[in-house]
Amino acid sequence: MKGLIATIIYLPIRLSRRAKFASFRRRHLVLSCTTYVRETLSEANSAFDCFVVGSDQVWNPDLTDGDSSYFLDFVDDPLSKVSYAASLGRSSSLQAHAQTYKTMLSDFRAISVRECDSRDYLETLLAREVTWVLDPVLLDRPDHFYAIAKAPTDKTPYIFAYCLHETDLYRYVEHLRRMTGLRVVYVPESIRTRIPGTKVMILSPEEFLGYIRDAAYVVTDSYHVVALSILFGRNFKAQLKHALPELNSRLTSLLRQLELDAQIITEKDYESTALPAMDYKRVSESLKVASTLSMEYLLNALTRGDRK
Hints:
The chain is an alpha/beta fold. Helix content is 39%, strand content 11%. It contains 10 helices and 9 strands. The strands form 3 sheets. The chain has a 5-stranded parallel β-sheet with strand order 7-6-5-8-9, sandwiched between helices. The relative contact order is 0.12.
């Protein structure tokens, strides 16, 4: 009964979110004229020269319900199969799907993934080169996201908290609120969550970007909120998932590559009475190097001239 009541209460929020995202897709995404489904995907072979699969959890059969389309099994020419920043999801389930990966990925022209542990795993399993690359979000120009972002109506400085799973981050949010005196704006993992601050449940992508862009501080357990915080040059702290540690690799891989490990929340952070400003000059340099290497991989993978 409780589940039914929660579903009924949450339904208007879900429908409103869907409408906002549908509007965003119509206005900002360039899509093919034809919409393909599993049964008609093979028809795309005559329309496209190359197929790129990526990124978030596309190679996690537990989430895709075993849909082999994400492994491009409908593509006729193996040399047209490329992955960019593909994610395998939970590191704990890799071995369970080893045969699937070995069968489905053996003929890809080029393979890149988003997590370092996935790269190491696939290189061993497939006995071939696998490249670590940046998430696609981090390949875009910050000014592109700045232009899309919609500023919050309340201009008072705030802490933006976004929680997907790990509610322990609220403990640090409260510590930061007391330390800075700033108000809190938060997107909770559950409609039932209550903390001191302003709860926002229905955001368009533009509004979501605006809350990150204009925040004084960002606290989150979300990979993409961290990525966007980096693009916007925000001071942020990242909460690892203690209940779901197998989901941490995507975040730790990124922070390690950009030398931002210190932004992971630890018990020592609760002893601090000040939050040091992040050195975004150094971060930008590291991001530029990683972005250049990622773009080189993608352009090389898309080049048909050297295919044999």
